[in-house]
């Protein structure tokens, strides 16, 4: 149980370092509007993340019932992680040359919640990404269904923890923090995902050749 929770927290925190449009949107809401607007957006992101996590875990649980599909999903999930890592590297490198600002618009609490919800849910690859993470972890660590749920709960909890902490920090340091560090964090996380995906893929292919 503790292994699943600790791994979930560690995985979730690594993913939270991937600062992108959602982070910048929340940071902008907090800095240029109010702390309440920031927390409204955090709530929306947390709802979407947990929705995707539940869907991913349910899908993984069904797909992993057969050994052949389990191996195929292991390879597919590794490829997905590599692709996402590449996309993050590409976007991070582009951002180092030209950082773009997000237009915040009006910022009522309901508006902040709905925009953050849409912004988070707008990527159709998010569910695939979470599925890749859970499949890779379940195969690597041998998590059963209960442990997989604990892993998902722990991973999802890092969203309100990290983004909530972000809102607090930006509330205390309004107009004093530069967003210039974001691409470098994305660069690092992109490299981690690529390396992790490649290692998992090599391990699975080597195991297939031996069996």
In words, what does this structure look like?
The protein has 211 residues and is an all-alpha fold. It has helices at 2-16, 21-32, 35-63, 67-97, 109-121, 126-141, 145-172, 182-210. The protein has one domain (2-210). The chain contains 8 helices and no strands. It is globular. The protein starts with a helix and ends with a helix. Residues 99-106 have low confidence and may be disordered.
Structural class: mainly alpha
Report the mean per-residue pLDDT as an integer: 75
Helix content: over 70%
| Radius of gyration from CA coordinates | 18 Å
Give the overall shape, derived from the CA principal axes.
globular
Features:
single chain, 211 residues, 8 helices, 0% strand, globular
């Amino acid at each position: 149980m503790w292994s699943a929770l600790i791994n979930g927290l560690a995985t979730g925190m690594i993913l939270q370092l991937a600062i992108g449009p959602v982070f910048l949107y929340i940071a902008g809401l907090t800095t240029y509007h109010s702390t309440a607007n920031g927390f409204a957006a955090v709530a929306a992101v947390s709802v979407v993340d947990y929705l995707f996590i539940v869907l991913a875990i349910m899908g993984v649980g069904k797909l992993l019932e057969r050994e052949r599909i389990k191996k195929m999903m292991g390879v597919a999930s590794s490829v997905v992680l590599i692709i996402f890592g590449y996309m993050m590297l590409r976007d991070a490198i582009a951002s180092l040359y030209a950082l773009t600002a997000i237009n915040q618009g009006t910022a009522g609490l309901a508006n902040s919640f709905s925009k953050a919800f849409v912004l988070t849910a707008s990527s159709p690859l998010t569910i695939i990404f979470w599925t890749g993470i859970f499949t890779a972890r379940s195969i690597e660590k041998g998590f059963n269904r209960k442990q997989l749920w604990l892993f998902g709960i722990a991973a999802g909890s890092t969203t309100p923890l990290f983004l909530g902490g972000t809102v607090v920090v930006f509330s205390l340091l309004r107009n004093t923090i530069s967003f210039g560090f974001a691409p470098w964090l994305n660069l690092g996380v992109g490299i981690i995902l690529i390396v992790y995906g490649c290692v998992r893929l090599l391990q699975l292919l080597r195991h297939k050749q031996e069996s």
